[in-house]
Amino acid sequence: MRWGVRDEATDDHMTTELCMREIQNCQRLSMGPNFVVFLGQKYGYRPIPTYILSSELQLIRDDLASMGVDVTLLDLWYKKDSNAVPPISILQPISSILINFNNKRVPKLQAEDQAVWWDTLTKMQKLFRKGAASLFAQGKLDKDQTHNYFMSVTEREVINGFLNVKNTKNHCLAYIRYINNINLQNLKKASLYVDILNRSLDTEACKLLADLRDVRVPNRIEASNIQKYTIEWIGREGLDVDTHEEYLNHFITHFYKNIVKLVDRAMRKEDSSAQGQIVTEILQHLHACNNSVKVFYGRKEQLVRIERYMLGTSDKPIVLYGEGGCGKTSLLAKSAALTTNDWFAKVRPICIIRFLGTTPDSSALTPTLISICQQISYNFMLPFDQIPDDLVPLTAHFKQLLTYANQQQPLILFLDSVDQLTGAQDSNKVSWLPTRLPPYCKIIVSCAAEETNPVVSQEYHILRRMIDVEENFIEVTALGEELAMNVIKMWMRTACRDLTNYQWRLVANAIGKCSLPIFVKLVFAEICRWRSYTRPQDTHLASTVMDSIMMLFERIEKQHGRILVFHALAYITAAKSGLSESELEDLISLDDRVLDDVYQYHLPPVRRIP
């Protein structure tokens, strides 16, 4: 979990948050096992909170002060961010106070500041625990609030990856090991296996671990998914490969068999039939649609025109066009949502949504048409084996399927970025689109159109000639300053964020120069990072989309390392059709310069990404 964590994450106290995000990624991506917990006799590192409700910190501070305790350290290291709603206090980056903490060029100064930090951390840990325990005794903090100041990173990981999971049977395994007669005379070696405080066992950590390991974990998992071991401490080293061979072999066998079991169980549930595959494809586009609709705001005039088309008699597709980043995708997604929930609420419309180019089966024309034909056939209970593989008969079959639309089941297709499809004729990527639609069938497509770029606008001009009905073309323009500001304010409220008056003026100035939705999104992503105490010279917004993207790349480089970001983007750019995540990981894993930079402190058993 710690491999590849950079100095910047340690400096900003983001290591714990990175680990929690990685657990979420495993839960999101893994079909079968996604979390295996190994618990021994060490509770582990117990950090102080990076973020605390300002009201809670004030309670702790006041209570400590009333006891005559010096709270100068808390005042120095925590700053109140009033941009958060409600306000939070944030632990400051270490190097903002101890400027040589990351200074690798002067190792002596770096070592001094690092020693000061670890001493400071210990003192603040004691302050928080003393204050939290006192407030808990007074009934001013509940049990969970209090435990937050005593909890280790390990327990937090177990809570997020294991205890809070609904289905541990199919996704989690637990291994618990007890070592008898640990030799505490050899503190250096013993500290690898138990928590040491003042040259003896940390009894508080032992108690917290026992509750987690011996009570909460066993109560949350099936007996078949947990394995316990008890072994003896051997000699000075503690563990010995020869002496503990039986235990190690049993663990390896048990781990292997149970991981395979969980993977097999997940695969049996996976529907690999054509029907199952099309459902997976549909869900991917529905998720994308839902994500776009969540942040949609405005565009009432365009939505009225689209509704009029949907409910009208037009027998031709309708086209949303505009420059890149103008909001065509979001408008199309919102139209799809309104079609099902509002415009056709009295019937059962069949909505087919494709954000072209976002999945393997929606990037090229032939697989896209096949998946659309499969979805139509699925809804009208038609066999899949009649769907051709060759483009010409496939296009004819697609148009034939559209005729199955009826009054009770209107057929509505939403196709975003039709100009991005590959595999059609290079000179005409949209010739497969029907120019005349059967009754109860509507098609809404989007494509790019830029006056200054005829290459980008090529498909748009072809669509103009194919459809030749002015009212069936809706230009999607920039939001305009007022709407763009309203959108940002709505997003900020949703994110529980606010800005100072000065910062709001900066946003207004930037939006006054560009109000394209993509620019608004980039501005929002940037200002969400601003604190109320952020210095004016550090609150900068670009005035163009390209400059905003460059700022984003610079921030990503700072966060993840320039070498990793530079090489990853280079590989993606060099690949003609892009790269899948697994392909990108394989390429980076062959790049020694990236691996040397990523694994600065911890070398994993297998040198690869991730």
From TrEMBL:
<keyword id="KW-0853">WD repeat</keyword>
<dbReference type="InterPro" id="IPR052752">
    <property type="entry name" value="NACHT-WD_repeat"/>
</dbReference>
<dbReference type="InterPro" id="IPR057588">
    <property type="entry name" value="NWD1/2-like_WH"/>
</dbReference>
<dbReference type="Pfam" id="PF25469">
    <property type="entry name" value="WHD_NWD1"/>
</dbReference>
<dbReference type="InterPro" id="IPR027417">
    <property type="entry name" value="P-loop_NTPase"/>
</dbReference>
<protein>
    <recommendedName>
        <fullName>NWD1/2-like winged helix-turn-helix domain-containing protein</fullName>
    </recommendedName>
</protein>
<keyword id="KW-0677">Repeat</keyword>
<feature type="domain" description="NWD1/2-like winged helix-turn-helix">
    <location>
        <begin position="544"/>
        <end position="599"/>
    </location>
</feature>
